Amino acid sequence: MKTRIKNILREKPLGETVIICGWVRTRRDTGGFSFIEVSDGSCLANLQIIADDRLDNYQSEIKQLSTGASVIIEGELKASPAKGQEVEVHATKIAVVGKADPETYPLQKKRHSFEFLREISHLRPRTNALGAVGRVRSRLSYAVHQFFQERGFVQVHTPIITTSDCEGAGEMFQVTTGKAGGKEEHFFGRPAGLTVSGQLQAEVYALALGDVYTFGPTFRAEKSNTSRHLAEFWMIEPEMAFCDLQGNMQIAEEMLKYLLADAMTHCPEDMELFDKFIEKGLLQKLQGVTEQEFAHITYTEAVDRLKKAKKQFEFPVEWGLDLQSEHERYLTEEVFKRPLTVTDYPATIKPFYMRVSDDGKTVAAMDILVPGIGEIVGGSQREERYDVLAARMSGAGITLADYQWYLDLRLYGSVPHAGFGLGFERLIQFVTGMTNIREAIAFPRTPGFAPC
Ligand code: 4AD
Ligand code: MG
Fold first, then answer.
1. Phi then psi dihedrals of residue 439, to 5 deg
2. Which of 12, 107, 247, 267 has the most CB atoms lying inside 10 A of its own CB?
3. Residues near ligand 1 with C-beta < 6 Å?
4. How far is CA 210 from CA 144, 410, 416, 420, in A?
5. What is the distance between the alpha carbons of residues 24 and 22, in angstroms, rounded to a whole number?
6. Could you tell me the distance, in angstroms and rounded to a whole number, from the CA of residue 366 to the centre of ligand 1?
7. Superfamily holding 119-440
């Protein structure tokens, strides 16, 4: 039975026979010995294997082993005299499972740029940094479920194919059979697309089960080639019945702090790697975020601050215009130097479902901005009044009949409710310090790019 390197390094079963299945990182020969560093992906650290010519394939295979080759090693775990490692394996058997031709294998010992690694997305998880992102992402996905399940939220699998454009921004990828002209064209009887958000369907379940969340893939056909946009990303969307904007803000802040703390507790080695090589001071930054209250201003105050700023912005600042990434980052990085929740945006720049405030001009919206990224969470209290919602939808050019099911929720037992969306990759960016969102997901999809 194979033993994971992670468990070997934790439990250190000295004197026991262990079996390791992994990939060669490096091989070094001295005299009649070879030192082989092996990784099995279970943790950041490699395990050192010592082989010598008592192995019958030592000359024929072991001394030819190169970076990337796969091996199964059996041997005894011993205390290591070498610096920087506590244990090593003295191999009694090494099976070479798959070779990796050093002439063509693209990953060599030196550090490769992330741009280069994106071109070989089928091999990049074998690097220290991308492997670490993979493990942290998996852990955080688990922690998301843990956070909500511990609080009694029910997970809803909202649809991926939908006939509703939640954000109303016309950024839906269309779903068709490709058989244009025929009856088949609209497989569902009307135009359908890939979801831009599970929110509208999550609202259905919130108004039945109380507190719910959905966590799934989300698609946007926006031609934004930036370091924080993907055409396919994952979103965490809680939706709470009998909840207002204040309650929404609280749960969002609590969730973010919970997730940061979870990554630091459960992925300490990976997080140290990011702190050392990706963003110096990362751990201190994250620790600080978990200990401080988030700052809070209204959109109107944000506009005032931006107008008074000494900084020259590329995009104009005017009440009624949306905040751009440069504005968001200025506020969170330079003014507040911590996460910042901005609320009460103009109704004209926000989607139809947000609750109109008493002033008639703003909606009960909230965005959470974090240093280095800008918007990481977007949410709101929802418009629960039938007439107000219908008017907003008509104003947005929506055919009410297509969304009667959504309006019905305001007809039968409507309640104040609220929710938000956390972009999972933006969270991963924030936690790992990766500057480009393309490193926060295994297989990034961006305009013109989807290689496998
Ligand atoms: O602000 P957004 O568009 O909000 C919604 O979709 C709401 N329906 C959510 C809700 O209230 N249930 O998106 C929410 C978050 C953003 O703050 C951002 O983190 C992320 O989703 N996001 C993206 N992440 C990567 N690539 C993109 N193209 C993204 N667009 C949004
Ligand atoms: Mg938003």
1. -90, -5
2. 267
3. 166-167, 197, 199, 220, 229-230, 233, 235, 237, 375-379, 419-421, 423, 425-426
4. 18, 15, 11, 15
5. 7
6. 12
7. Bira Bifunctional Protein; Domain 2 (3.30.930.10)
Supply the pLDDT for residue 128.
96
Nearest to 122 by CA among 448, 444, 386: 444
Amino acid occupying residue 29: D
Whose CA is closest to atom 2 on ligand 1?
378
pLDDT of the residue at 185: 73
Residues 36 and 49: their CA atoms lie apart, in Å, by 5
pLDDT at residue 167, rounded to an integer: 86
Which one-letter DSSP state was computed for residue 382? B
Q: Are strands 340-346 and 295-298 parallel, antiparallel or unpaired?
A: parallel
CATH topology (fold) of 5-98:
OB fold (Dihydrolipoamide Acetyltransferase, E2P) (2.40.50)
Neighbours of ion ligand 2 (CB under 5 A): 378
Residue from 329, 344, 341 nearest 377 by CA: 341
Q: Which is the closest atom of ligand 1 to the Cα of 202?
A: 12
pLDDT digits (tens, 9 = 90+) for 285-339: 999 999 999 999 999 999 999 999 999 999 999 999 999 999 999 999 999 999 9
Residue % of the chain over a pLDDT of 90: 92
The per-residue b/e assignment along 305-326, b for 16 or more CB within 10 angstroms, e otherwise, is: bbeeeeeeeeeebeeeeebbbb
d(CA 256, CA 376): 10
Q: What is the pLDDT of residue 169?
A: 81
Compute the distance from residue 350 Cα to the ligand 2 centre, in Å: 8
pTM > 0.85: yes
Give the per-residue pLDDT at 110. Answer: 81
Report the alpha-carbon distance of residue 236 to residue 140 in Å, rounded: 11
Counting from 1 in the atom list of ligand 1, the atom nearest the Cα of 367 is: 17
- The ranges assigned to domains in the chain are 5-98, 119-440
CA dist 119 and 117 (Å) reads: 5
Phi, psi for residue 17 in degrees, rounded to 5 = -85, 130
Across the beta sheet with 174-175, the strand order is: 161-162, 192-194, 174-175
Report the DSSP pairing between strands 47-52 and 87-98: parallel
Distance of alpha carbon 161 from its chain centroid, rounded? Answer: 21
Place of tokens 């933006």: 426
Residues whose CB is less than 8 angstroms from the CB of residue 416 and which lie 6 or more positions away in sequence, other chains included: 242, 243, 244, 355, 381, 382, 384
Q: Which ligand 1 atom is at minimum distance from the Cα of 224? A: 28
What parts of the chain have a pLDDT lower than 50?
A: none
